[in-house]
Design brief:
Largest sheet of chain A: 5 strands, parallel
Structural class of chain B: alpha/beta
Radius of gyration of chain B: 23 Å
Strand order of the largest sheet of chain A: 2-1-3-4-5
Number of strands of chain A: 5
Shape of chain A: globular
Strand content of chain A: 15-25%
Number of helices of chain B: 13
Number of helices of chain A: 5
Strand content of chain B: 5-15%
Largest sheet of chain B: 7 strands, parallel
Largest interface: A-B, 37 and 41 residues
Oligomer: heterodimer
Chain lengths: ~140, ~375
């Protein structure tokens, strides 16, 4: 019988840690939605384990972590380890957005983060990046 | 193929990633998903499935969260399927129910999965029913389906559940609203959530009136009298189960199990008030289903619906290809617009080959299965 695939790019937009500003995350969530993606938004103040749980259960293609607090160096590796634990690291495209100093970018990428989008990155650029790099499954 | 076998094995072994991946395959209708789901059936039948519906903002997600927490405290594992709408224009969606599942975050034994309407023609209800199968086979004790109560589609989905709770927020219209057909008819349990808000008493009253009016005539409930809640209490507390109903000279007792009158529960999901009462009512309904044989009937009806939906979808897919070969639906629609033909003629012509094929095969196929 015919099987018409109805693939849709699934993204988790995650706020991790203590910063309370989620306007950027909302903008991204909306932009992803309008691009035809399915977006799950985590809500504010999530612990790394909560983000991992959501990413694994929802089987997202893309995990976008929004951090403005400066805690990315401790929080992002915890998330990456968690994904690893559930065999989800390999085929999840992890993006970090927010205020990330230039000198920290290489370290995040070494952790497995595919791209870091700082302030001023255009929405189109981010959507395009996701379209081109969302893992083939 | 062997990849899918591994996936099934991992799911049955309790690996969360495998469950997540199987549900994705179901949603995507990825190659091989049918064999996968068909293999799941052999491992299902143990979960109790509860559907929660009600208008947007009624507090469904918060209530689901509290239900999941309570079940977990009793040592049961929980699967949640949260349905959100998707854009009719881009297909995109923001699946925002998970955000309220705050009491159980970090607890992997509450498996929350968000779903949106991707396909058409019952695609969502098929995908939901299949995802329930995956969670059931995985070993979840309780599965909660949460939908937006916005249309017929949602009604199909909550019918995937054994027990359906409909949330009615205070002040959701006058008593005429409760006379209208639709979502209220499918309730096994009514929940007036946000019961601390003004107007809650009136809403409860209106629901009780409606239930009294509709006593025995609507939806799934069969005819009979009496109020279930009261009787269930009576059975539990006073009579020490010595006689099988007939001994003590209560003539209605024997008929009682065949009746279900939906109870009305008041809850305040944000602080957990009334959640235990709700769970009790859900359990009463479950017992009623088992006792009265309604569970078997309902399960049968559900599978019947699954078969029909699947066939409808499959035939639709087959004809979709046929449409493409004919140059697409737009060209045909244009032909109708310019008066060259009409939709009925087109449908007849598209279906004619299928009819011929089925006629030729007559007597060979499905009958053998049902015997």
């Amino acid at each position: 019988m015919s099987e018409q695939e109805t693939r849709s790019i699934r993204c988790l937009v995650a706020k991790v840690g203590l910063d309370g500003h989620d306007r950027g995350a909302h903008v991204i969530a909306r932009a992803f939605r309008d691009a035809g993606f399915e977006v799950i938004y985590s809500g504010l103040h999530k612990a790394p384990a909560e983000i991992v749980q959501a990413a694994v259960q929802e089987d997202v293609d893309v995990l976008g972590i929004s951090i403005l607090s400066g805690a990315h160096k401790t929080l992002v590796p915890k998330i990456m380890d968690g994904l690893e634990e559930y065999d989800a690291a390999e085929d999840t495209l992890v993006l970090v957005g927010g205020v990330i100093p230039e000198e920290d970018k290489a370290a995040l990428q070494a952790e497995g983060v595919a791209a870091v989008f700082g302030p001023g990155t255009s929405i189109e650029e981010t959507v395009e990046f996701v379209r081109e790099n969302a893992p083939e499954r | 193929m062997s990849g899918d076998d591994d996936l099934l094995e991992d799911l049955l072994a309790g690996k969360h990633r495998a469950l997540a991946r199987v549900i994705s395959k179901i949603e995507n209708r990825a190659p091989g998903y049918r064999e996968l789901v068909s293999d799941l059936y052999a491992h299902t039948g143990n979960a109790e499935i509860v559907g929660i519906t009600g208008s947007p903002g009624a507090g469904k997600s918060t209530l689901v969260d509290k239900l999941a927490e309570t079940y977990r405290n009793r040592g049961e594992t929980v699967g949640v399927i949260a349905i959100d709408p998707s854009s009719p224009f881009t297909g995109g969606a923001v699946l925002g129910d998970r955000i309220r599942m705050a009491s159980t975050v970090g607890d992997m034994d509450v498996f929350v999965r968000s779903m949106s309407a991707r396909g058409t023609l019952g695609g969502l209800s098929t995908a939901t029913a299949d995802a329930v199968k995956a969670m059931d086979a995985f070993g979840k004790d309780k599965i909660i389906i949460e939908t937006v109560g916005a249309g017929q589609n949602e009604i199909d989905i909550v019918r995937t559940a054994d027990t359906v709770a409909v949330l009615v927020p205070p002040g959701s219209g006058d008593s005429v609203q409760t006379l209208k057909a639709g979502i209220l008819e499918i309730a096994d349990v009514f929940v007036v959530n946000k019961a601390d808000r003004p107007g809650a008493d009136r809403t409860v009253q209106e629901l009780l009136e409606m239930i009294e009016l509709g006593d025995g005539s609507s939806g799934f409930s069969s005819s009979g009298g009496g109020h279930h809640g009261v009787d269930a209490m009576g059975e539990g507390d006073s009579s020490p189960h010595s006689s099988e109903g007939s001994g003590k000279g209560e003539p209605d007792e024997a008929d009682e199990p065949d009746t279900w009158i939906p109870p009305v529960v008041e809850t305040v999901a944000t602080d957990g008030t009334g959640v235990d009462d709700l769970i009790e009512d859900l359990e009463h309904h479950r017992h009623y289903l088992e006792r009265s044989g309604t569970l078997a009937e309902r399960t049968r009806r559900r599978y019947g619906e699954e078969i029909r939906t699947l066939l409808r979808e499959d035939v639709h897919d087959l004809l979709q290809d046929e449409l493409e070969r004919a140059g697409g639906v737009d060209a045909l629609a244009e032909a109708v617009r310019t008066g060259e033909t009409d939709p009925y003629t087109i449908a007849d012509e598209a279906l004619a080959p299928l009819e011929r094929c089925l006629e030729e095969l007559e007597g060979e196929r499905l009958e053998s299965v049902s015997r």
